[in-house]
Predict the 3D structure of the following.
Amino acid sequence: MERTPTGTPVGVDDPYAHAGRCDHLTSDGRCRYALERAGDDPAFAAARREAGYACVAADEDATWRDCPHYRSTTDGRECRRCGLEDVRIAHDDSRPLLEEHHLSYGGSDDPTHEITVALCRWCHAKVHAGWARVDDDAGPDAEALAAREARRSEERREFGFSTAAERADRE
C-alpha cells in the first residue's frame, strides 16, 4: 500500500486507479497548464504548443502518469469510501464533515502528481490508522450520520422565515 512521507498508509495500492481527469484539462481537450503557465515549464509548454496544446494523455499510447503536471483533486461533495454527503453551513466555523485526502506523494525518482479524494473525518482517520482502505465497501459511521443530520436540521432551520422581532425573542 502507498504511504505518506511519514509512513502512514494512504489506503490504496495505486493512486491512479482512483484519479479522475486532470484539473488542467479543458473541455476541448487542451492543456490549461501549458496555456496559462508556460513560464513555469517552457519546454513542456513548447511541446504542447507544437501539438496544438493537446493534453499529453490525448495520445493513444499515453496515460495520466506520463504528464509531468498531472493533477486530480477532489470536488469534495461526498466521501469516496462511505458515501457520506457533505453539508456545509454558511458562516459557520465548525469542522467540515469531509476532508481532502492525498493519495499520492511524489518521491525523489518520480514526478509529484497531486491526487486527492474526499473522505469524511471518520473514514479519513480509519485509513490513516491503517486498518481501512479507500475502496472498502463501507457505510457511514453512526456518529457521522448524526453530525450530518444535525447540520441538515440547522440548514432547515435557517431556511425558515422569521421576522427580526421573532429572532430577537429567541436570543
About this structure: The chain has five helices and three strands. The chain has a mean pLDDT of 89. Helices lie at 32-36, 42-50, 121-129, 142-159, 164-170. The radius of gyration is 21 Å.
